[in-house]
Amino acid sequence: xxxxxxxxxxDRPSSKDVARLAQVSQATVSRVLNHPEKVxxxxxxxxxxxIKTLNYLPNQSARDLVxxxxxxxxxxxxxxxxxxxVESTMWIVQYATQRGYKxxxxxxxxxxIEESYRAAxxxxxxxxxxxxxxxxxxxxxxxxxxxxxxVSYNRRHQEKLNYVELDxxxxxxxxxxxxxxxxxxxxxxxxxxxxxxxxxxxxEGFCKQYFHCYKEAPKKEYSYNPDAIDFSILIPKIKEWxxxxxxxxxxxxxxxxIALEIMDYTKKTLDxxxxxxxxxxxxxxxxxxxxxxxxxxxxxxxxxxxxxAIKLLIDNIEFQKQHNINVTFPPQIFERGSx
Length: 339
Fold this sequence. Notes:
Elements: H1 5-11, H2 15-22, H3 26-34, H4 41-54, H5 59-67, E1 72-78, H6 83-98, E2 102-108, H7 113-122, E3 127-130, H8 139-146, E4 150-153, E5 163-166, H9 168-181, E6 186-190, H10 197-214, E7 223-224, H11 231-244, E8 249-253, H12 256-270, E9 279-283, E10 297-300, H13 305-319, E11 326-329, E12 332-334
Parallel strand pairs: 1-2, 1-3, 3-4, 4-5, 5-11, 6-7, 6-8, 8-9, 9-10
Antiparallel strand pairs: 10-12
Domain HTH lacI-type: 13-67
Organism: Ignatzschineria indica
Protein name: LacI family transcriptional regulator
């Protein structure tokens, strides 16, 4: 017997069925779907297990599944002040459009990531691509329970599920070795929050290679890893380091975006010319870094991470080619004029 869309929708499990199987209230199911951080881990696990067992989909997703009308991908991207995200967003939207998908874009900073997850999931897209995942992010379990294809790029989860990244540890190690070979005596590291894989692994790679090259650990006062960079704090630190540390000096920034801002601030506020007074090195190899007026030496992949990620995500949506996407690009040095 052929079922109409309305009959199929009626036959699908509801949130009441999920609540009954998980032995929780319907309100708890709603909280797990919309505010998982407000529900205890044991309760979340019970609800996720019930969702997966019943193959439950919220109403909007069920309608789209039956009608076949949903060709939406949600992109959760970092701020477009960072040229890395500008480039990756452009490639993602362009490629997805060519494949017949609409992209809903959520531009966020790490502080608002939970709200962006809720907004992205509310429309129940065919897939989610995200650059802002935390190293121990609970969204992974929620996406698995809802059976929504996803991939992260630039960052990855500690469980190594569905990601496209640069070999961040090796990139930073290569950068430190490059500075050592160019005879820089003192290095000031500027990174970011260590609860994300990108900054975490780049800092680890830098520290390990620094110890190997300089036979001592990098000084803590010469490393800056904030949740968000405050240049009113950073520039005085750099000034003190520059005036007191001996020998030839370089700043190693964990991203090109940070490196480019540092080049601007040190020139305007400290009157330091790059590379004569100070060297600056970045990681990512964004297109802007090769601008003739900037000429930033950097380390990065030869492929765009966002473009690679969206290609693999759509292939997974349509053909289920890979159960788990694991792509790590080797880093390459792009020597320019900032060292």
